[in-house]
Specification:
By secondary structure, the protein is an all-alpha fold. It contains 14 helices and 4 strands. It has helices at about 50-60, 65-75, 80-95, 100-110, 115-130, 135-145, 150-160, 165-180, 185-195, 200-215, 215-230, 235-245, 250-265, 270-280; strands at about 10, 20, 25, 35. Keywords: Repeat, Signal, TPR repeat.
Length: about 280
């Protein structure tokens, strides 16, 4: 029952972490792209048929914390957060050192709006296993979204020092470098994230904006085009492409790209503002 590694998603209000089975992962020039997981995993694993079979396992092994953790993960992927929370609670009750279950519960807490509880669960997972990179990344993203950028940076840095192969650590640290205007470092991190997950559009958007900030229009344009090719339904990618057209003086093409961004997300302010600036050239 493996899942793909978590991919990137936006906007920042969407959530970040991994549901895990035991120790194995289930499978202006600042980017708004953040990370996500449940939006990209195999929803079939949260199907009623799969949950039914997992419930049979729980019934046969009522004292096995792993059985509850696995079913809780399936509940989470199926959007049944209260059932998921109950299963992770039970797994932790049976095994208070089950750090993966704490991280899984943190994700569900976050989906339910319990941000401080989520941070506490990630912190407990780290206390039990100080080398658990997924917990640093999950907690770091919570800190980042709350505006606690130094704590977020420290967590992403720690995950990277642990030799994580999770692209989220590099992507999110890149966003922080970018917000500080440290675009060379941001480009390096986005490039590493791309090397670890080349089919994810968000690191291309991030790197493209840092290229743009450094005046490297051709590189920026190539990255935005790649992002659109990978997923043409992301408003940010089209708005970023439009920004290059605008800087090149081609208002007609810029307006068309801004219009597509606004169609995808009618409330996306960069698209609204860009279209207002360039619509006369459409």
């Amino acid at each position: 029952m493996n899942l793909k590694r978590a991919k990137f998603d936006m906007p920042a209000a969407r959530l970040a972490a991994l549901l895990v089975l035991g120790s194995v992962a289930l499978s202006a020039c600042t980017s708004t792209s953040a990370v996500s997981d449940l939006n990209n995993v195999d929803r079939a694993q949260g199907s009623s048929e799969n949950i039914s079979s997992l419930s049979a396992v729980v019934n046969r092994n009522p004292q096995d914390p792993e059985a509850y953790n696995v079913r809780g993960s399936a509940y989470g992927k199926g959007g049944r957060y209260r059932e998921a929370l109950a299963d992770f609670d039970k797994a932790i009750q049976l095994n208070p050192q089950f750090y993966q279950a704490y991280a899984n519960r943190a994700l569900i807490q976050r989906y339910m709006g319990n941000q401080q509880a989520a941070i506490a669960d990630y912190s407990r997972a780290i206390q039990i296993n100080a080398s658990y990179d997924a917990a640093y990344i999950g907690r770091g993203n919570l800190y980042r979204l709350a505006g606690n950028t130094q704590a977020a940076f420290n967590d992403f840095q720690k995950a990277i020092q642990l030799d994580t192969t999770d692209p989220r650590a590099y992507h999110n640290r890149g966003l922080l470098y970018q917000s500080r205007g440290q675009h060379a470092l941001a480009i390096e991190d986005f490039s590493t994230a791309i090397s670890l997950s080349s089919d994810s559009p968000e690191p291309y958007n991030g790197r493209g904006l840092s290229y743009l900030a450094n005046g490297q229009l051709d590189n920026a344009f190539a990255d935005f085009n790649t992002s659109i090719k990978l997923n043409p339904k992301i408003a940010e990618s089209w708005a970023n492409q439009a920004l290059v057209y605008e800087k090149q003086g081609d208002k007609a093409k810029a307006a068309r790209s801004y219009k597509e961004a606004k169609r995808l997300d009618p409330n996306y302010k960069p698209a609204i503002d860009g279209l207002a600036r360039t619509s006369a050239g459409a």
